[in-house]
DNA sequence: TATAATAACTAATTATATTAGTTTTGGCAA
DNA sequence: TTGCCAAAACTAATATAATTAGTTATTATA
């Protein structure tokens, strides 16, 4: 019966597929257990209930997202790197809509580890912005802007918020280029 | 017993307060009925179940948000108007976190009326952008950028995504100014 | 081979959404 | 005023989900 003994990674993988296929809210312990061929209480041997599962999904999603962004920035710098990161971000959300949703937990379930996982993306952006030689706070404001744009774009697209027949990839590139040209303008003005 | 006979507006108001105070996911038909002093099945006399309630919240939220944005743009033009709209957007989300969350329903519950309500904000932004004399598609890409920024910023702030001790209002203003300066640059370059 | 830990199971509890069917009530017409 | 009817409340019942408690089976190991 407990033949191959399920492990947490397998459970997580099934949850991710379920989330991406059916939407995060469709990932119940029942549906997950059914997909794994076990009864839902058995899941408690591996994960800390629904809340624990959501947390694992968030951590895993943040990790994968940051990995994608990092990979996209390898060998690139400045605007090229930032555009590449932006494209990778949106591509990740398109590939993992449910998992991405899980990376945005309610504030009350935030803990140190989640904050740290989230901050890794912030650090990546700070590293790329490094060459612009901005003051620390100026760089942080820029990062907030970039994160807002990417999260907002990806979320709206995910929810079908862009109804019109207008190329979304084009919208993404323009948004990033517009923001970055505004940024360059500031940087040059300061010098 | 059915003394003053509840109406839909009263129910909606209670649901909004519940959502803003406790979070949207805490708005159950049980909790809502309890707050109204009735039993949950009685709600079905006024609303079409949980799904219907969510839809009403979305519609109402989109309406209120668009009203706020519109009011903010009265008597203003260009960058001033856009900054004012952005501030109003974020202020609305801060005031109505739960209701705002309800304005982003899953794609499968989208219908014509919701799309129309959502499009009113798009039209407002298009109207403000009118003076820049952009091509239709250029303007639409700009609007997507603005919406993405505002939604992303508001969502991240709502979820406690901005952990650092750095003024968020300042971040918002800088984000908008950076984007708008990039936009002005493009417009001027085209001329 | 026997035992201990692990991981599955069943059973039961609580909470929620929903439907069906019943009762109450408040307004309006006779 | 009185009686009727539609609206809106109610109770009861069902289905799904999360969770806990307690039980059984299996696997690894002493």
Please provide a written account of the structure:
Two copies of one chain form a homodimer. By secondary structure, the first copy, chain A, is mostly helical. The first copy, chain A, has eight helices and no strands. Chain A has helices at residues 8-22, 29-36, 49-73, 78-95, 97-102, 112-129, 136-158, 168-190. The model of chain A has no long low-confidence stretch (mean pLDDT 95). At the A-B interface, helix 6, helix 7 and helix 8 of A face helix 6, helix 7 and helix 8 of B. Chain A binds a DNA duplex (30 and 30 nucleotides) through loops.
Terminal CA distance of chain A: 70 Å
Q: Count of helical segments of chain A?
A: 8
Query: If you compute it from the alpha carbons, what radius of gyration of chain A comes out, rounded to the nearest whole angstrom?
Result: 19 Å
Mean pLDDT across every amino acid position of chain A: 95
Instruction: Decide which structural class fits the backbone of chain A.
Output: mainly alpha
The biggest beta sheet of chain A, please?
Answer: none
Domain HTH tetR-type (chains A, B): 5-65
DNA-binding region (chains A, B): 28-47
Organism (chains A, B): Paenibacillus profundus
Keywords (chains A, B): DNA-binding, Transcription, Transcription regulation
Chart the SSEs and their pairings.
The structure is a homodimer of 191-residue chains.
Chain A: H1 8-22, H2 29-36, H3 49-73, H4 78-95, H5 97-102, H6 112-129, H7 136-158, H8 168-190
Helix pairs in contact in A: 1-2, 3-4, 3-6, 4-7, 4-8, 6-7, 7-8
Chain A binds a DNA duplex (30 and 30 nucleotides) through loops.
InterPro entries (chains A, B): Homeodomain-like_sf, HTH_TetR, MT1864/Rv1816-like_C, Tet_transcr_reg_TetR-rel_C_sf
Keywords (chains A, B): DNA-binding, Transcription, Transcription regulation
Domain HTH tetR-type (chains A, B): 5-65
